[in-house]
């Protein structure tokens, strides 16, 4: 997975490791087990809860970075045009509104770019051996297309369909027109020369939700903005003290990055 | 040619729950065991950064790599089976601990009815109750015979549960090892509603420890933290019972277990009704080894257990036309799909918190606990409310009629993110003559061996069961003070696409009659007395429960069988 490279390899990991060893990997009775000596976690949890997320760029791996600059926002796979179509389309699937940010502000298009560059994009862990046959829906994905190939063809098809119907590129359409194009893809009403429109659409829809709600380490859910909208506290060590409570327990969310540096 | 290794008393194929239990029991008894696991090694340290929904839940970090091996699937014999190319209906374990690493830990002993389902059904309803084509079978073992082995598993894993159990489930000779898990507001709403209706709800017995626990082997583990990253994740606390933090260290401690990872077993050699050993490929190098042994144990989950027998030409393959042969027979699954969602406009719940086995359930409509005389199905379902931890990528509930994307979707899914409780049935799956496993004639794995082919669909039995159970989930949900409830009560064709359950069963079934079973009640193969096969593949059908309690009990029974056999070879039946 792509996250391997993104981990700062030096100091923080070791610190976190030591901190974590306080909680786990205790040897008891001569048998090494992955257990915790009771109570420790509850005692430490409050401190963890208080830990402020570090300023972006404050990690030792990127000294002297400007605080609001995100070096992760660059293309691993897309070209400029593909990126722009993705950004426009996913913003329609998950638009900004009074509840909070939409796909664009959350970095979803960067997330998708990074995913398509990864093992996911090349179907590295899927069974991709021939023969390929037309399948019933209940037999699942049966195409030779790799996800990244399907996605790029789908983006071209969005532009192609927009040109045919509106004489404009997808990104130049009004939001209502964009919705109409996306609806045509969703319901397989777009004829796009062999590109399975609804398969492409549902892949884009899944990727959008993943980009909104996955850990920010993958490039989406910027500043945990997706999580904050629905009071999801991200990655907490323990809910031991809260699990029985009535009513919503609100907490500052924590990301995996916080876990490394706190 | 394969490099021939020195002979050992026992070789175990697969180091998940079954392999781990058998290895621990035998090595504690002083028997030398070689454990072969096709995947990598694992430890609790691997989970320091496990709270990552995308990596573990959506990209299946811990599961079998399908590019190397998958299964093919078809609804019936008339259509072409096609491979499950990416994950869907079920998730296969791989690596040390197998699926025992990323399971939920919901622990249910099967019902006494399950083990004698054929006799008891005929006894109560007569011969004509069973529909045409349904191949119900007794298991060749009773609940009472298996009871002491359940206890062993519970003490080893530290199963957490209520001190007493309802009278509609099997009796326990010893209470659970630890007390029940904590009760959340949603669980309370469910159990209060169920009690009001006269049902008997109880806390789901849990392999996520309710408290710190030291087991009879001296293994100490800490209490569950309700972290909400449990199903599909490894536990960074060792709180979830998993072979890697329970049985495997005990086996290794004896010095009698030689564990080899990246060892993918490709065949069993046999001559004159006895196995001589197994061949495996060291996956990083492709080098082949032959491991001779006095006893071969298959503990490689349903699909590998069946596939290894078929590719090795050991036992008689099942033929659905004549109904003869038993290897691959009685493949069953789990009938989910009956459920009711309760939506609350005026209340929020912390449903992002939870543990894999946290919840409350009832068996008033499971097994034969209710009269089926006027019903068009047999068996039933465990009905439950679980709070396993709902994470934001996979949990975006909206009332029916809400668009699937755009602003309306965003608003509704965010509004209801913490405002739904789902009551669901986990239905039994009964065997049919035309549901089975065999070798695919076309598709191969990365080593060129045929893939397992599954022929299976939902029947009228399943559709009727879902309709009935759904009405019960609605009855309960309607008593839970929700703004509105929505019931799902229809089941269509089985699809490989959406995740349903990793409770695949059958194919190397157990029984007293060799014509309809592959192993006897010590899990010893009828056709090769030094081969023991263990797992949910032994089930003659699947109950309205998760399988691992029964799998675990059978593994303890199999370990006893292997030890007996080594002392005195011959059939144990
Ligand atoms: C997400 C999920 C949630 C679950 N939740 C529950 C639950 O709450 N309650 C419950 O009762 N059950 C649950 N289960 C099911 C439970 O995990 C299994 O019943 C249990 O792990 C089965 O144990 P096993 O030893 O038979 O198989 P596994 O644990 O799968 O182990 C089999 C091992 O054999 C290895 N193997 C396979 N083929 C070969 C080969 N050819 N050569 C060498 N090694 C091989 C595999 O790599 C694997 O490690 C769940 C499963 C999943 C996936
Ligand atoms: S919910 Fe409990 S048992 Fe499950 S992973 Fe978290 S701490 Fe472990």
From TrEMBL, chain A:
InterPro entries xref list: Gluconate_2DH_su3 (IPR027056), TAT_signal (IPR006311), TAT_signal_bac_arc (IPR019546)
Segments passing through the bilayer: 20-43
Any single Pfam family the record assigns to this protein: Gluconate_2-dh3
Membrane keyword on record: yes
Record region (Disordered): 44-66
Keyword entries, A-Z: Membrane, Transmembrane, Transmembrane helix
Keyword Ligase tagged: no
Tree of life domain: Bacteria
Protein name as it appears in the record: Gluconate 2-dehydrogenase subunit 3 family protein
Native source species: Cohnella nanjingensis
TrEMBL record, chain B:
Coiled-coil features, chain-numbered ranges: none
Keywords recorded for this protein, A-Z: FAD, Flavoprotein, Oxidoreductase
GO molecular function: oxidoreductase activity, acting on CH-OH group of donors
InterPro entries attached to this UniProt entry: FAD/NAD-bd_sf (IPR036188), GMC_OxRtase_C (IPR007867)
Organism domain of life: Bacteria
Glucose-methanol-choline oxidoreductase C-terminal domain location: 437-555
SUPFAM superfamilies in the record: FAD/NAD(P)-binding domain (SSF51905)
Record carries keyword Transferase: no
Family to which the UniProt record says this protein belongs: Belongs to the GMC oxidoreductase family.
PANTHER family linked to this entry: LONG-CHAIN-ALCOHOL OXIDASE
Protein name: GMC family oxidoreductase
């Amino acid at each position: 997975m792509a996250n391997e490279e993104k981990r700062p390899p030096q100091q923080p990991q070791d610190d976190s490791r030591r901190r974590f060893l306080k909680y786990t990997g205790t040897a008891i009775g001569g048998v090494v087990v992955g257990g915790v000596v009771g109570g420790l976690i509850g005692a430490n949890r409050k401190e963890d809860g208080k830990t402020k997320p570090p300023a972006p760029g404050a990690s030792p791996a990127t000294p002297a970075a400007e605080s609001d600059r995100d070096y992760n926002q660059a293309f691993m796979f897309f070209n400029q045009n593909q990126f722009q179509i993705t950004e426009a389309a996913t913003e329609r699937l998950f638009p900004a509104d009074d509840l909070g940010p939409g796909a664009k502000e959350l970095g979803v298009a960067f997330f998708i770019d990074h995913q398509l560059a990864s093992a996911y994009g090349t179907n590295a862990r899927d069974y991709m051996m021939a023969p390929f046959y037309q399948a019933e829906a209940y037999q699942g994905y049966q195409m030779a297309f790799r996800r990244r190939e399907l996605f790029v063809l789908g983006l071209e098809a969005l532009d192609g369909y927009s040109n045919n119907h509106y004489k404009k590129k997808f990104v130049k359409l009004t939001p209502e027109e964009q919705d109409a194009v996306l609806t045509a893809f969703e319901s397989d009403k777009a004829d796009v020369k062999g590109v399975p429109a609804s398969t492409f659409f549902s892949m884009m829809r899944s990727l959008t939700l993943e980009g909104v709600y996955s850990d920010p380490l993958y490039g989406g859910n910027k500043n945990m903005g997706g999580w904050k909208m629905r009071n999801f506290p991200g990655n907490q060590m323990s809910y031991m003290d809260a699990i029985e409570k009535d009513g919503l327990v609100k907490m500052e969310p924590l990301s995996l990055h916080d876990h490394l540096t706190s | 040619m394969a490099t021939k290794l020195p002979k050992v008393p026992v070789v175990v194929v697969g180091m998940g729950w079954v392999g781990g239990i058998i290895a621990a029991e035998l090595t504690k008894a002083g028997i030398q065991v070689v454990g072969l696991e096709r995947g990598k090694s694992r430890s609790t340290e691997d989970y320091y950064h496990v709270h990552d929904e995308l990596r573990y839940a959506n990209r299946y970090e811990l599961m079998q790599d399908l590019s190397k091996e998958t299964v093919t699937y078809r609804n019936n014999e008339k259509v072409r089976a096609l491979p499950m190319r990416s994950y869907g209906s079920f998730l296969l374990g791989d690596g040390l601990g197998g699926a025992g690493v990323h399971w939920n830990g919901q622990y249910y002993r099967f019902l006494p009815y399950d083990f004698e389902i054929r006799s008891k059904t005929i006894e109560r309803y007569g011969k004509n109750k069973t529909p045409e084509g349904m191949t119900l079978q007794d298991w060749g073992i009773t609940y009472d015979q298996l009871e002491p082995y359940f206890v062993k598993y519970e003490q080893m894993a530290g199963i957490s549960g209520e001190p007493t159990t309802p009278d509609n489930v099997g009796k326990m000779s010893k209470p659970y090892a630890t007390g029940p898990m904590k009760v959340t507001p949603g669980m309370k709403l469910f159990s209060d509603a169920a009690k009001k209706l006269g049902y008997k709800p109880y806390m789901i017995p849990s392999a996520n420890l309710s408290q710190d626990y030291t087991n009879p082997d001296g293994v100490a583990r800490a209490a569950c933290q309700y972290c909400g990253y449990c199903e599909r994740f490894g536990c960074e606390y060792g709180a979830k019972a998993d072979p890697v933090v329970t049985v495997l260290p005990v086996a290794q401690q004896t010095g009698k277990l030689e564990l080899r990872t990246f060892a993918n077993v490709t065949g069993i050699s046999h001559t004159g009704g006895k196995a001589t050993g197994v061949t495996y490929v060291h996956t990083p190098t492709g080098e082949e080894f032959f491991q001779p042994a006095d006893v071969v144990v298959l503990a490689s989950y349903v699909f590998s257990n069946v596939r290894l027998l078929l590719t090795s030409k050991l036992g008689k393959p099942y033929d659905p036309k004549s109904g003869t042969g038993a290897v691959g027979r009685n493949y069953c699954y789990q009938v989910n799909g009956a459920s009711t969602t309760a939506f609350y406009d005026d209340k929020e719940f912390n449903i992002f918190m939870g543990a894999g086995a946290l919840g409350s359930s009832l068996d008033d409509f499971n097994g034969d606990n209710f009269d089926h005389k006027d019903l068009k199905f047999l068996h039933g379902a465990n009905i439950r409310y679980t709070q396993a931890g709902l994470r934001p990528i996979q949990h975006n509930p909206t009332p029916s009629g809400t668009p699937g994307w755009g602003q309306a979707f965003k608003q509704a899914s965010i509004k209801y993110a913490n405002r739904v409780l789902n009551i669901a049935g986990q239905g039994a799956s009964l065997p049919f003559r035309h549901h089975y496993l065999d070798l695919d004639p076309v598709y191969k794995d990365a080593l060129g061996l045929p893939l397992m082919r599954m022929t299976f669909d939902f029947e009228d039995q399943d559709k009727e069961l879902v309709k009935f159970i759904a009405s019960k989930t609605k009855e309960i949900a309607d008593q839970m003070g929700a703004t509105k409830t929505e019931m799902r009560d229809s089941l269509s064709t089985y699809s490989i696409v959406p995740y349903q359950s990793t409770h695949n069963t059958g194919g190397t079934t157990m029984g007293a009659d060799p014509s309809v079973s592959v192993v006897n009640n010590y899990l010893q193969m009828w056709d090769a007395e030094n081969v023991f096969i263990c797992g949910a593949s032994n089930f003659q059908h699947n109950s309205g429960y998760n399988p691992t309690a029964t799998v675990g009990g059978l593994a303890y029974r199999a370990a006893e069988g292997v030890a007996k056999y080594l002392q005195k070879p011959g059939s144990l039946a």
